Predict the 3D structure of the following.
Amino acid sequence: MEIDISADGFLPTDTLCEHIRQCLDAAGRRVNTHVRALQVVLLPGTRVGDSGKWMGPKRCVLKAEVVDVGAVEVGARSYDLYEAVSRAVRRLRRFVTSRHPRSA
C-alpha cells in the first residue's frame, strides 16, 4: 500500500508518522491488501488569538483507494491528534471489512 502523509499548517513529527504506520499495521492484512493507496491528511484545529496557538479538536482524514470500491474518505476528530488517527484507521478497517468479508 502506498501511503502519503500531509498536514495543514504544521510538519508531522516522525513519532506521529510512526503512529500512523503502526495503526495501519495493527488494522490487519485485509486493510493492507485491499487498500491500494492511502492519503493521510492531518488538520490541527483552529488558530486562536494573537499567539497563533492551535485550539479545538484536531482531525485526521483518510482518503483511500479501495479494491473493487474506488475512492473512500473516512475521518475522525479528537483533541488528541494521535487518538484522531487511531479512530480514523479503525473506521477505515470497519469499512474495508464490510466490503471484503473474510473468505471461507
The CA atoms of residues 7 and 74 lie 16 Å apart. The two ends are 24 Å apart (CA to CA). Helices lie at 14-27, 29-34, 81-99.
